[in-house]
């Protein structure tokens, strides 16, 4: 695992910085009613509500960023080695079955059952162990050549993905779509979407439709509000810089303290993290809670605009992380996934693989004797295949996205 970067290029240093900011003794940025008022104004209520939501999403995002490296470490150090061990035992099992199949002790009915068992294990094994030996055994007992079957399956999945892309994004993926991994498919889809957008932009008329006076006035108001909102954050930042700039501090210890605070100020300003900037003002006692309570609603309106944008960015970042894992784990798009659930699922999967290893080791030891295995075969019945199994094999077992 690369210790320098995590999911989506998130540097470790940034995560450490976020953790330090979270643990810093900041005061809560929460507006209380004015002394002469019993209730909060609508703008004040919205400020407090947005603040709570942002704080909750910050904690969730931090939990994700703390969980991801630990999760990948567990996958690499615990889960993957277990899967490799299971694969090796499954390979031993199909070798044993292959040996039994060629022995005269086993009659036609026995051989049919052995063939079914070999194909069943090979289909699972080839997902993780696409080797010549496994393919050779599969081809020996299967009705179709593995590489040919895989090409047909990939083609069917490609057609499915092309249909979904056409229906959802109105984009034609063409015949070269690569569905061998989610990353390749996602990159190809994004490339096609980009080409489509560029083509549409080129096809637009040189002169856009003339806007009405009402539309122009609304745009002007929006631009003015955006400028005022940005200016509000800049004002808070400038006030902090005015008292915290370390170059103006002669005392060495105080200069070190201000350097650390300025790093936090710059990080918050770079993220447009208004709440963090206000929290720093509270921390250094540049303002107090009474100051926030006395703030005019007209200014809070601009603050709330910044907070809405920050909350939307946090929501989107968390959603992207969740969607990435749900896609990899083949979870439905509507399912909710938390860092705790991700770790719990991995623990469950790990235990399941451990149980499978214990079971197959027991079977290998018990069925090492051909006569014992023949006696067991008498009790074994090949499961009947329903008409839904072909659908499941194609769109679930056949999808090349089953990995962690």
Main β-sheet description: none
Shape: elongated
| Average of pLDDT | 80
**Percent range of helical residues:** over 70%
What is the end-to-end distance? 14 Å
> Which residue ranges are poorly predicted, with pLDDT under 50 across at least 5 consecutive positions?
1-25, 390-403
Q: Given the helix and strand composition, which structural class is it?
A: mainly alpha
Q: What is the helix/strand order?
A: HHHHHHHHHHHHHH
Query: What does the radius of gyration come to?
Result: 31 Å
| Percent of sequence in beta strands | under 5%
Count of strand segments: 0
Number of helices: 14
3D structure, described in words:
With 404 residues, this protein is mainly α. Among the domains are: 148-198, no CATH class; 222-295, no CATH class. It is built from 14 helices and no strands. It has helices at 12-23, 42-101, 108-128, 132-141, 146-169, 182-203, 213-244, 252-270, 274-283, 289-294, 297-328, 339-366, 370-377, 387-397. Helix 8 runs antiparallel to helix 9 (274-283). The model is unreliable at 1-25 and 390-403 (pLDDT under 50).
Brief synopsis:
The chain has helices at residues 12-23, 42-101, 108-128, 132-141, 146-169, 182-203, 213-244, 252-270, 274-283, 289-294, 297-328, 339-366, 370-377, 387-397. The chain is an all-alpha fold and 404 residues long. Among the domains are: 148-198, no CATH class; 222-295, no CATH class.
Q: Which terms summarize this structure?
A:
mainly alpha, about 0% strand, 14 helices, about 400 residues, single chain, disordered N terminus
């Amino acid at each position: 695992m690369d210790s320098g970067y995590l999911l989506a290029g998130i540097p470790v240093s940034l995560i450490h910085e976020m953790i330090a900011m979270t643990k810093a003794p900041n005061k809560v940025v929460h507006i209380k009613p004015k002394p002469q008022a019993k209730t909060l104004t609508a703008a004040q209520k919205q400020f407090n509500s947005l603040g709570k939501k942002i704080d909750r999403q910050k904690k969730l995002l931090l939990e994700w960023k703390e969980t991801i490296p630990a999760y990948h470490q567990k996958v690499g150090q615990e889960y993957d080695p277990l899967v490799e061990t299971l694969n090796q035992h499954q390979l031993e099992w199909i070798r044993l079955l292959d040996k039994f199949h060629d022995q005269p002790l086993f009659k036609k009915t026995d051989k049919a059952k052995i063939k079914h068992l070999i194909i069943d294990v090979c289909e699972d094994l080839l997902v993780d162990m696409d080797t010549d030996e496994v393919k050779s055994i599969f081809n020996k007992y299967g009705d179709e050549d593995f590489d040919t079957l895989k090409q047909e399956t990939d083609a069917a999945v490609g057609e499915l993905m092309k249909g979904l892309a056409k229906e959802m994004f109105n984009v034609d993926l063409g015949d070269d779509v690569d569905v061998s991994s989610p990353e390749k498919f996602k990159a190809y889809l994004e490339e096609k979407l980009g080409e489509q957008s560029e083509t549409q932009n080129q096809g637009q008329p040189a002169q856009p439709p003339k806007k009405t006076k009402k539309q122009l006035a609304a745009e002007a108001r929006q631009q003015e509000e955006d400028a005022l909102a940005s200016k509000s954050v800049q004002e808070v930042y400038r006030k902090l810089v005015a008292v915290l700039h370390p170059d103006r501090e002669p005392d060495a210890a105080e200069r070190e303290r201000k350097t650390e605070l300025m790093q936090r100020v710059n990080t918050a300003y770079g993220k447009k993290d208004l709440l963090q900037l206000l929290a720093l003002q509270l921390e250094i006692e540049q303002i107090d809670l009474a100051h926030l309570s006395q703030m005019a609603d007209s200014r809070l309106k601009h603050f709330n605009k910044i907070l809405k944008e920050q909350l939307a960015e946090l929501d989107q970042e968390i959603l992207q992380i969740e969607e990435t894992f749900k896609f990899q784990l083949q979870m439905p798009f509507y399912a909710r996934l938390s860092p705790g659930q991700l770790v719990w699922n991995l623990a469950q999967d790990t235990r399941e693989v451990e149980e499978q290893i214990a079971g197959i080791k027991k079977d290998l030891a018990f069925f090492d004797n051909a006569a014992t295995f023949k006696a067991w075969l008498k009790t074994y019945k090949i499961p009947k295949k329903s008409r839904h199994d072909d659908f499941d094999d194609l769109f679930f077992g056949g999808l090349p996205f089953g990995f962690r």
